[in-house]
Give the backbone structure.
Amino acid sequence: MAGRFEACVGRGWAAETLHDLLAITMEPGLQAQSSCKDDCKSTAQNAVKKNPRVSAKDLQKSLAHANIFVDTSTIRKTLNKNGVHGRTPRRKPLLSKKNIAARLKFAKEHLDIPQHYWQNILWTDETKIELFGKNTQHYVWRKKGTAHQHQNLIPTVKHGGGNIKVWGCFAASGPGRIVVIDEKMNSRVYQDNLQENVRPSVRQLKLRRGWVMQQDSDPKHTSNSTKEWLQQNKIRLLEWPSQSPDLNPIEMLWHDLKRAIHTRQPKNIATLKQFCEEEWSKITPDRCAGLICNYRKRLVEVIAAKGGSTSY
């Protein structure tokens, strides 16, 4: 069956479905192209569910070997009409079966905990902030032929221009302390940081007696020496499932912080540190309260995903 073949295929076709498609398109008993198109449309929709990673171009080349010529623009338009669109995949931690089970257990056990419990937690985390925000998506409005004009460029330097690593914390009542970690973070440095910043933040945020600290499962946080330090300092921890940044609302504050910093276009590490502290101080109690007020929704999503990744 040669000639133009308007099949419904595109981004989202798995390589293993090509055999199915060829079987349909080359079946001798098919009398009408419209019938073939309907069959292929159904096959395409099933293929999208299986594996959304093979491009329209790759599938077009494979089909051409069987004398089936498919225009990639037609491929994409047809898929678009059926609600399937090419999108940049979101990055999420790889979850093992153990991770998934732990996340589901955490969500179920904490789903019906009263709201005041979440309001008495000190949420903590570390993050890296790039000088030129190489991990941040940027856009400019420009005319054709002006791509290389100075105002339309993002400056880059060898090795990325550097970065800073910061530790921060917050609670429902507002942002706590944020500190730049100038030396390599290990268990000792982590413990020193907690010593200097946790209780002052707890007092600043006016957490009630019985407050709990959240931290992730980084090896520095779970080492024997850190466990001993936490016990000696009587700091209670929220039991935390590994690979679960989507359950930590501080990730939203990191997003806010990095966007605000890079909007100001720091020129060097010194101004990067300065802007980091200034923009963190601008985070409002209302923003923090909103993240905690809606926390239960995260747990609901985890349960709905059976322990898998969420939209957060």
About this structure: Confidence is low (pLDDT under 50) at residues 1-19, 22-27. The chain is about 45% helix and 10% strand.
